[in-house]
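Researcher: Structure for this, please.
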Amino acid sequence: MGRERSGCATDPSDRPSPRAALTASGRPDAPSAPSGSGEPIGSQSSRPAGPAPKHSTPGCASAHGGGWRSNLRPALFMTGRVALMLAGIAVMALGIDVVVKADLGNSPISATPNVLALGFPAVSFGTFMLGWQCFLVLVQVALLRREFRLVDLWQIPISVFFGLCIDWFMALLGAAAPTTYLVSWLWLAVGMAVLAAGIVMTVVSGTVMNCGEAVVQAVVRKTGARFGTVKVGFDLACAALAVLCALAFVGHLAGVREGTVVCAALTGVVVNGYMALYGRVRQGARRWRAGAGSRVDEAATSLAEQS
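Model: Predicted structure, token format:
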């Protein structure tokens, strides 16, 4: 009764054929093509006899909910990727603030905004970071010109969120700071670990690149040099710019210390370690899903044999 009420048949063979309809109406029984063959009545079909192919109709698809489910899955997947990227940006901001609190020098990519915040206390670190990120977007435009993609302009609103997170976490940390040189190194290690975790989250999300890495990628595209080589040169250039800003606006070397060198040398190593761990976890999840699928198939086969 459910199929008759909905107007959808699960099998086209449930519907009366043209031959049956003509016979029932009392008209002469003329040869006809199989239902759904698309051939005129009276023509000879070259296809072998057999069950008619099953066709899906819009009414049946909507009744089973296949249409909206197929559209909902990609939307949910993209939403999850964007959420992961935003969470990674927030984690990166927390890691940078912890490194700043260690007072051993910041990472090269954020050293210049940190030095400018020390020279101009009326402006927050997050605001200078936003300006620095926008400057890096302009560098990409200058390098790529017509090759610059409009989708990469999403780096600007992401940079706004990044700057806000930096100021939020800095206010949350408040006056907390290490009291000894050894504790400062512990703060630096924790900050690097958190920063690397945020970088991995943004990379795994597969959405918009961070402004620093996007500049490196732009140089690689224009010169053909290796990414790692350009990355080292970019970090050195950022550190040199931070030193110049410290001497010009602070009056002494501030914000660039031994911790800056350690961050430049080891943050990438920590990122690689996280990525390797992520790869092992992903492979383990795939093997578990494959094993679960085989167990389900075995259970279904066993039930079928018992029935």
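Researcher: Any notable elements?
Model: Residues 258-306 form the longest helix (49 residues). The CA atoms of residues 102 and 184 lie 5 Å apart.
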